[in-house]
Amino acid sequence: MGKLEAFPQVIGEYRFECTRCGNCCTGDQRVWLNPGDLKRMAVHLGYDHTEELFRRKLVVLEQGENGAWRPRILFKHYKKLRFCPFLENSLGEDGAVTGLCRLHPLHKPLICSLAPLGRRWDAETEKSEWIFVKPAPDCPGVNSKKVQLLRETLERHDREIEEENLFFAKLQHLLGNKSKQPAFRELYFFKTGLREESPG
Ligand code: SF4
Ligand code: SF4
User: Fold this and answer.
1) What is the spatial distance between Cα 192 and Cα 180, in angstroms, rounded to a whole number?
2) Distance CA 93, CA 102 (A)
3) DSSP assignment, residue 141?
4) Fewer Cβ neighbours under 10 Å: the N or C end of the chain?
5) What is this structure's pTM?
6) Which ligand is nearest to the CA of 31?
7) 24 lines ligand 1 (CB under 6 A)
8) 153 to each of 16, 24, 110, 143, how far by Cα in Å?
9) pLDDT tens, 36-50?
């Protein structure tokens, strides 16, 4: 996510309204995932194990700037276009292209659901500061006058945020132990609880 210190902190409220243009689901965006995201995504696709997401090249493991190995969505390439495999475009009556997320709303990654809120995580206190991160360089939603209450946005996702807090604490522990990639992988490869089906 780049240099998080550069982003303004959100306290109380922020102005934003998504127009569903889909710009943040294309290009050079990096959609980082946590284990809860992997589970929701795999369940949505009918997979009994998260490994299937990696095997089908929907997700890839990558080492971030801080050294932690984390999964992210692997965007597809078509000519010069790059786009999320879960993005579906539709054409409205006004001729405008709308970007719809196939995982919305129940199986969408937390980072996408919270956008434009991002987090500055303090490993010592295990607390977050919420920051405003423009979802895409040309995101039209940031010009909105619509006021969003930080508390309400966080309440809508409190369970997923709590899960991610635990995940961040585990990552910090692994980093502190100078763990290698296999130790990180153990966080991301697990059964989803679904019976084995033949995914489409
Ligand atoms: S770029 Fe902004 S307005 Fe467009 S879909 Fe993403 S968040 Fe919504
Ligand atoms: S998961 Fe959905 S919201 Fe997130 S980048 Fe992909 S299409 Fe966009």
Assistant:
1) 24
2) 21
3) G
4) C
5) 0.92
6) 2
7) yes
8) 12, 19, 12, 19
9) 999 999 999 999 999
- Residue in this structure with the two tokens 């990552």, named with its chain if needed: 171
- Is there an atom of ligand 1 within 6 Å of 114 CB? no
Instruction: For residue 155, give both structure tokens.
Output: 């309440």
Distance between alpha carbon 89 and the CA centroid of its chain, in Å? 19
Of 53, 59, 98, 112, which is best to mutate to test ligand 2, by the most ligand atoms within 8 angstroms of its C-beta? 112
DSSP element (H, E) containing 54: helix 51-55
Nearest to 130 by CA among 4, 30, 45, 18: 4
- How far is residue 37's CA from residue 43's CA, in Å, rounded to a whole number? 10
In angstroms, the Cα distances linking 183 to 67, 77, 165, 177 are 13, 30, 18, 10
At what angle are helices 158-176 and 35-45 packed, to 10 degrees?
A: 120
74 close to ligand 2 (CB < 6 Angstrom): no
- Is residue 76 classed as helix, strand or coil in its secondary structure? strand
10 lines ligand 1 (CB under 6 A): no
